[in-house]
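Hello again, I could really use a second opinion on something today. My current little project is about how a certain protein chain folds up. You're getting the sequence in one-letter code plus the fold written as tokens. Here's the protein in full, and shout if anything looks odd to you:
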Amino acid sequence: MLTTLAGQIDLDAVAYVPIGTRRDIKFTRPQTDVTIDDTPITVAGEVRWNGWQSVPSKASGGSVRFELPQNWATGASSDSVDHVAGSSVRDFVVKAACDGDERQYAFGLRTDPAGAR
């Protein structure tokens, strides 16, 4: 799998997006099949808790829309600092197929962990 924030140290540089926010990804050509997976990662870009999950999405023409869900694995930590709003860094991998050609794209977001206070 791709990781997008390898070597990233400054959490303030990672965009914060609240849980439940709708996002659109626009492509230059219509996509026939799009999947999105996400997992929590460390600030070094390493997968944390192996929390891969599928993100429900809807493709339409040249874009795909999804609503940012909680990731179940973000509630797995016993460290209280991991449960503060805005402390979860997640890696999203988008697989898109068009005319028999599959591509992968990755991006990172900072969001809220499951059960954030």
Remarks:
- The first strand starts at residue 22 and ends at 26.
